[in-house]
Design goal:
There is one protein chain. The protein is of the alpha/beta class and about 325 residues long. It has two domains: about 150 residues, Sandwich (Immunoglobulin-like), CATH 2.60.40; about 150 residues, Cupredoxins -  blue copper proteins (Immunoglobulin-like), CATH 2.60.40. Helix content is about 15%, strand content about 30%. It has a five-stranded mixed β-sheet with strand order 3-1-5-11-9. The longest helix has 21 residues. The N and C termini lie far apart (about 75 Å).
Amino acid sequence: MAHAATQTVFMGTPPSAQKALQKAGADANQFFPTAIKVHVGDTVKFTPVGFHSAEFPAAGKAPTGLLAPAGTVSGANDAAGNPFWFNGLPQLGFAPPLVTSGFGKSFTVPSANGVRSGLPLVNKPKPMSVKFTKAGVYTYYCNVHHGMKGTVSVVAKAKKVPTAKAIGLLVNAQVKAAKAIAAALPKTPVPANTVLVGPEKGGVTLYTFLPGTLSVKPGTTVTFTMPVNAREDHTASTGPGDPNDQKVKSYLGDLAAGFNAPVIPGQATYSSEAPGTTASLSPTLHGNGFWSSGVMDAVAASPPAQSSTVTFSTAGTYTFHCLIHTFMHGQVVVG
């Protein structure tokens, strides 16, 4: 009779591989291993190593969405004093069920109410332990990154399951594949007058704008777009300030900081321009040269768009940042 065992699933890139992927400017929005097989009565520790979550939804239910309405946008004006178009629309914040943490706690699956870790909103959260009490295949999801999911196959104690060493080899193979994807992402082809925001494949994301510098003539319309099947969300935003500079208060810095707040400013989540319009970007747009795609994703059924366009009407160098991942930046040189 096999004794109950405990295995580990990393929620994101395992610590041993993080430096290599970070050196390539990339990360993997994957569970490691993506699939695991255990005995009835075994426990899996879901170990957080990035901004990820894990949810086993209740039967017939979808996983909890990351954001939910948290009031209504009001009084949102640009630097020139003009109201933004999204006043009156829902203001967004983290979905309340995800703010309740399951990290450091123990659960059993199956569960009538489902099991979720919630978001890792504290420093160094502890693993969430899940004991599996019935044979079956259980799928779980990351609430932060759409398409990031894994499975736990639970079999009778008389059946064979991989050893911890064999699971380690699976993780190593998955890491090797992620590194290969990361190395190839900078060569992703990009159409003319287009900037790919966060090149991605199979959940491996290159945190950059591609190309890093795009040169165009005045009057050119440029499309900022998300990759197909991307798991990340990004923005392409330009205006006063560098959101990476924590010592200097700035317009973009304040908007980026909003993603760490319970309720996110409308200027950070929504496009700066009304749907169906293409702005003419200059240093005086919205009174301070602000333009933003708003949050973009690659999920057709979700409200955020997959791409956004802007026309560069005035010569100069425009630096763009992702307000969610502030270390991501690129330039459009107009001249």
